[in-house]
Design brief:
mainly alpha, about 60% helix, 5 helices, two-stranded parallel ribbon, about 10% strand
């Protein structure tokens, strides 16, 4: 399920689910697009329909910034936790390293 914030649809996922989905994409064939729109990106999407379509086709859309999180809460009643970009990256890197190690041992 996704929550619309001013025309950009964000995935309704907790951090651990977002990491799991990103890791699952690594095991699938083909390219995948993961985006983390902030308020400036949402604003650009409102002004640029082609850019908005790129965001809409992303496989995983995670909010970046308290502005997007507050907007989702106000506009849609969505209560996302605030997760800063370095925390997201660290979680994905740690899970990827563990997955890579398991794959090497197989």
């Amino acid at each position: 399920m996704r929550t619309d914030v001013l025309g950009v649809a964000f995935d309704d996922v907790a951090m651990d689910e977002a990491v799991d989905r990103a890791l699952a994409m690594l095991e699938e064939d083909g390219p995948h697009l993961v985006v983390t729109p902030n308020p400036e990106i949402v604003q650009r999407a409102k002004q640029d329909p082609e850019f908005a379509q790129i965001l809409a086709r992303a496989h995983l859309v995670i909010p970046d910034g308290i502005g997007v999180i507050y907007a989702a809460k106000i506009l849609a009643g969505t209560a996302w936790d605030m997760v800063k970009e370095p925390e997201k990256l660290a979680a994905v890197k740690a899970e990827f390293a563990a997955t890579k190690e398991k794959m090497a041992q197989a």
